[in-house]
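Dissemination and training. As part of the outreach component of the grant, students in the summer workshop were shown how a complex can be specified as a set of sequence lines and then modelled as a single object. The example used during the hands-on session is reproduced here so that future cohorts can follow it. Participants entered these lines:
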Amino acid sequence: MSNGLARITNWYCRLTEEGGQTFSEVVIESTSPFPYRIERPGPGTLVLVAEALANAHPDTIIVDDGLVDEVSLTIPRTGEVEAQVKLEADVVWEHRTQNSLPFKTILRFERSILTKIFSHKTIVIDPGHGGADFGYRGPVSLREKQVTLKMATVLNEILRSFGAETFLTRQQDVSLSWQERLNLARQKKAEVFISLHTHWAPDAKINGAAVFYNPIMPQSEGLAREILARITRKGKVTGRGIAPSWSLTELGRIAGLIIEPATISNWVEEGLFRSPDFHRKIAYGIAVGLEKYFAQQEGASYAS
Amino acid sequence: MPLENDRIFEGRIPIRTHVFSDRDDIVEMAKKYTEGIAGPGDVICLAESVVAITQGRAILPATVKPGFLARFLSLFPGKDGSLATPPAMQLAINEVGMPRILLGCAAAAVGKLLRKRGWFYLVAGRQLAYIDDVAGTMYPYEKHIILGPKEPQKVVNLIKQATGAEAVIADVNDLHRVDIIGITNPDLEVHVVEALRDNPFGNDDQQTPIVVLKRSKTQD
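and obtained this result:
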């Protein structure tokens, strides 16, 4: 297929499950097997050095799946390709190959550290609006109540896969008062309450994400900042900043957030709100922000 | 991934590329990224949106001034599809002309009564179905409307000339619909459609707009 050396064609990161355990896998695809060695230049970094050619464009992928931060492919010299993996924490890993076309070389990282961080954590997720309360409406008539429910469903799945105990204030198109939503967080003794909304502005040019926090819970502000940073990076949206929300103060010592991942009155961002990919990216951004928050709370040795 | 069943391709190789722009020559890019991988008998598949992008057919909605008709007609298509925004509808009008769009609308209305879908595109032009509205394409083009590629058959013929491999331009979506827009060997179409059905072009995290289908050695 090639003159001697294998050709690397693609690389990506995926989540897999085996024997009840979840893993982050960095997969390097090539036309055939290639000789490689693995180096550890420092904590939280792993480099696979391959004797191969690269047809794939050398680049960096932002993964941000809670464990793998990013993966970069570089070509230091002809016939050598380096794949550098940056991790949020030092974890157990292994490497393996899969004989197929394309051939796969796989770096596999155990995600049990996430389960430890999220175990015994209760999170209440509130899809904003619902029922007769439609919320805001986009220029192509997307309704806020539909988007918030879709995003909440994805976030719920991801947080459960991280090991958290989660509750949704609504799973269907029903009306709930703000008090009912807050009550669920209090009843469940939640660590975090997350209410999902969309921003709306009379000027259709305004766009971006914002996070509002419970001002009487001091750690909420840091959590809001972390989540905004993650969702803007992952969702590739502009940040409109963080701000206190007095409607969350009734939560008392529960960290409460109102998250607006984008602006529904903006044509482009209304389009983003229709995309399941966008929902997934925002959900991962929130989940990784929570992970950092819980790790800090517990003083875990983290982010090497 | 290896393809299941007794198909004529033994494997499917997605290739990660840079983000294409109108400064790229799609034939040159196809040749560069498939060098040493695709040969005679293999098929180089290109996502239609990247072909269009290299042809300068990515349009920012802010640069389009939708007229009354575009604003009115954009109220009717399904909201998760194309032509749902006034700028996209205006670009469709610019592509095929107002009379054809109006005839397409009349056909769609009749089709609706008879519960038949797709009559708008049948009359107004299939190329309008390849328009990706805002947020319909991978980053950093999610803020653009992407028109369908120009002269797709000429592009695939040039790629075959440059590489020796067969070439295809396809529109694939995540609902497993595959439209072949240009193909050098029509006899392969049914096999190519099957091989692309689960959208190996992927999303913006995957960035693999070129896919090589390797012909089984027994089929050579």
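DSSP finds six helices and 16 strands in chain A. Students were then asked to discuss how this feature might be tested experimentally.
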